[in-house]
Specification:
The chain has a single domain (23-92), classed as Alpha-Beta Plaits, CATH 3.30.70.100. It has helices at residues 2-21, 39-48, 76-85, and strands at 24-31, 53-59, 64-70, 90-92. Strands 2-3-1-4 form a 4-stranded antiparallel β-sheet. A hairpin with a 4-residue loop joins strand 2 (53-59) and strand 3. The protein is of the alpha+beta class.
Length: 95
């Protein structure tokens, strides 16, 4: 019985630790080719489709997108690929 309790405690500790290590990150991408009114919504939708994305704000005036995402489910490369595949190449803005 003690072994079962210790095993359950270990599993619970590991689950809590992995949840604590997950963090929401916010980055800004510089976006190319945004030249019309429909560009920003397309970029926004392409980023929102990436698993782990929490929030997206796109600025056509600044040619940028600010993205908040769960870093255990998404990464910068996936975000860049999403915009690029939609026809809007992007790159990480200097922080």
């Amino acid at each position: 019985m003690t072994l079962i309790v210790k095993s359950c405690a270990l599993v619970a500790a590991l689950l809590v630790t992995s949840a604590v290590l997950a963090a929401a990150k916010t980055i800004t991408l510089n976006i190319d080719n945004m030249s019309c009114a429909s560009c920003a919504p397309i970029v926004k939708k392409s980023l929102e489709r990436v698993s782990g994305v929490i929030k997206v704000a796109v600025s056509r005036q600044l040619d940028s997108a600010t993205v908040t995402y769960d870093d255990t489910k998404a990464n910068v490369e996936a975000l860049i690929a999403a915009t690029t595949n939609a026809g809007y190449p992007s790159r990480l803005a200097r922080q």
